[in-house]
Amino acid sequence: MLKHLIKPIWAIQAIVLTFLIALSFTWVGTANANCLMFSNQNERLVNYCLLESVTGKLIDERTAILVSQRLKQEGYFGGLTSPLVRTHVFPTLSHSSNINGGNPDKSLILGELEFEGDPNLVAKEGAVVGANFSSTYRATYKEGQYLNASLLVGVSFSPEHSMNYTTLNWSACSRNKLRPASYLDFCVNASNLNRKLSIDRTESVSLSLGHLKYRSKFGFSDLGYGLKRSFYEGYEQNQAHISLDTIHEKQWYSSVRVRLGEAVADKLALNYGLDASATRMIGGRLITVSLGREFSNGGKLLGVNRADRTTRVQVSVPLTEKVSAKVGYAKTDSSIDYFDERGLSSNLTLVW
Question: What is the pLDDT of residues 327-352, one digit of tens each?
């Protein structure tokens, strides 16, 4: 049933598409890049852009202090005198299509068989109010070598359905400079989404190698490669990725990433994923548009093969200095119609 889907050509198409996108970025103009405009996108690339932009130039005291403060957080100039800890408490208002982790509100049809779902296990959707706590930790131990850790804890409540769910995400990364423009990172990550009818847990260990470079008429780029071992409920999977982040000379930022996953027997698992985003200042606001395409296969349900294609688009924009908004649309086409999904998402975040 799915032989025409489970072919390596999908992985080849993903790589070719990424190459064409990356190649098209080389034809940008020659205006100077504004490194700090994208300080929340890729810290290492922004600092490299800053350093390369001021090297050999006469700069004012304010710029010198700014550059040195940022580089100290990467272990330069003696590094941080003590670990740097930042915490935030922030509310969110969002729309969830599955508050309780339930099933689609329709019959499951497999060939000539039809199964009616339990009404008590149907997914609930609606507005959700959230309270969140985040914390980051940074410690430097050598020039260009430092430890990053982060924690996010959240509780979300649906007034309409009188139910809540919790999220917990944490990560720790050892980031290491190998050469002036090359690095090696080792990271561990974990996430937990606990809803009334389901608990989703994921852990991963990853190793990434990257190189920073400046090209005239192109910009500052971070080309990375990586391997990851992911641990899901009931199975494990090896994944590989290649990514390209760029601060373009016409003052916009782009990110392209291809992910490839190994086949897992009788489990619906990632085959390939393609993610791309662009960030630019428009009307005085730094707007990011993100696109994603993911293909998963290998699943089986009562002997019937399953493969899913998911497409996502999202727009992120700061409304004020402390309020940001995200609006998105996601569509999943499954070989088993029961798992088809589509819908809008929205999120409003206040950080103080």
Answer: 999 999 999 999 999 999 999 999 87
Instruction: Name the residue among 321, 314, 328 with its Cα closest to residue 350.
Output: 321
The pLDDT value given to residue 11: 42
Q: Are residues 173 and 147 in contact, defined by beta-carbon separation less than 8 angstroms?
A: yes
CA 325 centroid distance within chain: 16
In this prediction, residue 62 carries a pLDDT of 81
CA distances from 186 to 70, 150, 166 (A): 21, 14, 27
Q: CA–CA separation, 181 vs 53, rounded Å?
A: 14
| Residue 252, pLDDT score | 93
Per-residue pLDDT tens digits for 273-293: 999 999 999 988 999 999 999
176 φ, ψ to 5°? -135, 125
Burial profile 255-291: b = 16 or more Cβ within 10 angstroms, e = fewer: bbbbbbbeebeebbbbbbbbbbbbbbeeeeebebebe
Strands 269-282 and 285-301: antiparallel
Cβ neighbours of residue 27 closer than 8 Å, sequence gap 6 or more: none
Residues in the chain where the model's pLDDT stays below 50: 1-33
DSSP letters spanning 87-141: EEEEEEEEEES-SS--B-SS-EEETTEEEPPPGGGB---EEEEEEEEEEEEEEEE
- The predicted model scores a pTM of 0.85
Q: In this structure, are residues 253 and 245 in contact, taking their beta carbons and an 8 Å threshold?
A: yes
| CB distance 252 to 284 below 8 Å | no
